[in-house]
Amino acid sequence: DSFFEQVPLAPPDVIFHLTATYKADTFPQKVNLGVGAYRTDKGKPWTLPVVKKADEILHNDPNLDHEYLPIKGIPTFTAASAKLMLGADSVAIKERRVAGAQSISGTGAIHLGALFLSKYYPKGAVAFVSNPTWANHKAIFNNVGIEVADYPYWNPATRGLDIDGFLGALNAAPNGSIIVLHACAHNPTGVDPSHEQWTAIADVMQAKKHFPFFDCAYQGFASGDLAADSWSVRHFVDRGFEIFVGQSYAKNFGLYGMLLTAIPSMFEIWDAIFEDHKRERCGCLTAVTRDTVTAKRVDSQFEKLQRSEISNPPAYGARLVNIVLNDPVLFAEWESDLRTMSGRIIDMRDKLYKKLIELDTPGQWNHIVDQIGMFSFTGLKGR
Ligand code: PLP
């Protein structure tokens, strides 16, 4: 008898399963709208020119070795990540009340934060996620034993934000709930709160002593402006909140590093061996706390948790990002690459909208251009 007998068969991941079915489809004009990865107008993945440059620099570094990184990752990488998210002039950074750990992309950052909360946040607290949200949110919190509920977000009638439902749920939630917030470019609706709405959200969360856990997977990728895309996070920090924010460099650096996780085609294996083999997933979990002593304690626990989870984070992707974030010239180039990607997405939305109007398509289509980022809820129904 094997104890494996009782292990149930898990259904395949919906999105990645779709990718596999897409690959198997022989229709020549097929388009994959499933997975959230940037494509050029030829439908191909795009290696950012600035990432190629950073790769060159790394390649030519005579001191490069393959030793372990520190447990919490490259210190200049986590520091630059906090600066990128909170702003170069952030008071929280000046007051040294920020803790951080390098993570395995955004997923790893959210996981580490959730794990921390499962140990140190008051027991029984529920994590609220938007309805709908990125499907992994629920799984990540559930995996560490935190119960998940949702707050209304999408209003099908306006194809926009259900702000009343959202605020109502925040009010009705038990005090001190964990609230997972998409910093920008909400997945999957493409609908973000306005500044005024964020302010109202922060008002209720302050009154209810909720804990904001930001998921920021699209900084600079939404509007093309790094500060504009992190406005929500900075607003909460300015108002004195203690927060967690998980950052992903998958989209804004094109470092998805996932080519071989989906069922690979020959082309992808080739690509992975000869070009993309060095891509690695990197992200960062940052905590803003009330003071330096607290930040130190939190930081020490990040290190302890990370040690038992992965020991040391992978180096390659973080080294590339570290080079770019800490070099003013490359940083400016990166900003230009971000404008290329976000600009193309905005342009595609604009073209689709104009075409729908030009063709006198029945219905209202302004949501296509009001939404931001690479996801769109079209309001179309399946047949
Ligand atoms: N959070 C959201 C909302 C996302 O859309 C994604 C990626 O699609 C992530 C987090 C994390 O992705 P990754 O782990 O690839 O950085």
Automatic annotation (TrEMBL):
<comment type="subunit">
    <text>Homodimer.</text>
</comment>
<dbReference type="Pfam" id="PF00155">
    <property type="entry name" value="Aminotran_1_2"/>
</dbReference>
<keyword id="KW-0663">Pyridoxal phosphate</keyword>
<dbReference type="InterPro" id="IPR004839">
    <property type="entry name" value="Aminotransferase_I/II_large"/>
</dbReference>
<comment type="similarity">
    <text>Belongs to the class-I pyridoxal-phosphate-dependent aminotransferase family.</text>
</comment>
<dbReference type="InterPro" id="IPR015424">
    <property type="entry name" value="PyrdxlP-dep_Trfase"/>
</dbReference>
<dbReference type="GO" id="GO:0004069">
    <property type="term" value="F:L-aspartate:2-oxoglutarate aminotransferase activity"/>
</dbReference>
<dbReference type="GO" id="GO:0006532">
    <property type="term" value="P:aspartate biosynthetic process"/>
</dbReference>
<dbReference type="GO" id="GO:0030170">
    <property type="term" value="F:pyridoxal phosphate binding"/>
</dbReference>
<protein>
    <submittedName>
        <fullName>Putative aspartate aminotransferase, cytoplasmic</fullName>
    </submittedName>
</protein>
<dbReference type="GO" id="GO:0005829">
    <property type="term" value="C:cytosol"/>
</dbReference>
<dbReference type="InterPro" id="IPR015422">
    <property type="entry name" value="PyrdxlP-dep_Trfase_small"/>
</dbReference>
<dbReference type="InterPro" id="IPR000796">
    <property type="entry name" value="Asp_trans"/>
</dbReference>
<keyword id="KW-0808">Transferase</keyword>
<dbReference type="InterPro" id="IPR015421">
    <property type="entry name" value="PyrdxlP-dep_Trfase_major"/>
</dbReference>
<keyword id="KW-0032">Aminotransferase</keyword>
<feature type="domain" description="Aminotransferase class I/classII large">
    <location>
        <begin position="29"/>
        <end position="381"/>
    </location>
</feature>
